[in-house]
Amino acid sequence: MTTASKITLVRVAMIPVFLVTMYLSGGAAGPWMWASLAIFVIASLTDYVDGQIARKCNQVSDFGKFLDPLADKLLVISAMSMFCEWGVFPAWALMIVLTREFAVTGLRMVASGKGTVIAAGWSGKVKTFCTMIGLCVMMAFPGVVILNWIVMAVIIVTTLYSGVEYFVQNWNCLWN
Question: What is the DSSP letter of 99?
Fold first, then answer.
């Protein structure tokens, strides 16, 4: 197993710890929310680190290609789910994010079956970055309603844009 994949596995292992600290915070400012934010930031940074190591040290692997995006999705969806439980992030917004993730994953699976690899696009990376930063902002400033709505709007816009872009650029994979 490569170093990059081990770092990704650490990110996956951090998710239950993150969820426990988020749960204990109850959605309010305090030491548990700060712990949640710290864990989320560290986990988010491992996404950058494992990618750099994989590319620079020639450690790109099929396992890493599978696990890295899965780890990102699990981390982000776990945070959004907690905010949804607290009524801070509406379920419809979470469904938009989930629908995009399932649709793009399905598109990639169809393309892969035809021998085509759909690499992560720039808009997908921007979406991930905006989502992770936005969720950090929501953890750093819990209860600031206008800030939560701004973050949610950015997440929804970047999610929809990147999802549409993936399908527009790879539409031929579905019909050939």
Answer: H
Q: How far apart are CA 104 and CA 123, in angstroms?
A: 13
The gap between the terminal CA atoms of the chain, to the nearest Å, is 36
User: By C-alpha distance, which of 112, 125, 11, 2 is closest to 61?
Assistant: 2
Secondary structure (3-state) at 110: helix
Reported pTM: 0.92
Tokens of 172: 């031929």
On the CB side of 139, CA atoms within 13 Å amount to 28
Q: pLDDT tens for residues 79-137?
A: 999 999 999 999 999 999 999 999 999 998 898 888 888 888 899 999 999 999 999 99
The tokens describing 119, both together, are 């690499």
Whole-angstrom distance, CA of residue 154 vs CA of residue 176: 34
Separation CA 52–CA 49 (nearest Å): 5
Cβ(146)–Cβ(32) under 8 Å? no
User: Given the structure tokens 């019909």, which residue do they identify?
Assistant: 175
Closest CA to 50 of 99, 22, 11, 78: 11
